[in-house]
Amino acid sequence: MLGPMRRGSLILAFAWLVALVATLGSLYYSEVRLFLPCELCWYQRIFMYPQAVILGLALWRQDFAIWPYSLALSLIGGSLSGLHLLEQKFPDLFTLACKPPVPCSVEYIPQFPIPLQALIAFALIALSMGFLAREVRRAGQRG
């Protein structure tokens, strides 16, 4: 059976891996596939890209106190992803942040929309941070 700190390390590693894959995937879409990001995409990146760095540093330093910061970034970024997904599915419902040259209603991958991919990544990181918070509390009660 794994102790709380060992489980915490695994949870942190998972969250970092999700953030890293999301960041690299985002860069792949824009730099290799040449998908131009819309304004909402840029805002989502603002909340994902730092997580690839801060979660990696936290994992390296075994700093489990990172969870509230990452959770906040994930909840805000996930909310933006949800809004973006709604904008793509119901373009007449919203008119915010959809300016040229790339409107937010553009779907580059209709089968698996990019905002849905981002929402899943933010949700996985947020859930991981919830589990990490629980492990930190357990370790504090035992230590």
Automatic annotation (TrEMBL):
InterPro entries on file: DiS_bond_form_DsbB/BdbC, Disulphide_bond_form_BdbC, DsbB-like_sf
GO molecular function terms attached to this record: protein-disulfide reductase activity
GO biological process: protein folding
UniProt subcellular location: Membrane
Gene3D superfamilies attached to this UniProt entry: DsbB-like
GO (cellular component) term, any one: membrane
Recorded topology in the membrane: Multi-pass membrane protein
Residue spans crossing the bilayer: 42-60, 67-86, 114-133
SUPFAM superfamilies (alphabetical): DsbB-like
Keywords annotated in UniProt: Chaperone, Disulfide bond, Electron transport, Membrane, Oxidoreductase, Redox-active center, Transmembrane, Transmembrane helix, Transport
UniProt record similarity statement: Belongs to the DsbB family. BdbC subfamily.
Protein known as: Disulfide bond formation protein B
Naturally occurring in which organism (per UniProt): Thermus tengchongensis
Upper taxonomic lineage: Bacteria, Thermotogati, Deinococcota, Deinococci, Thermales
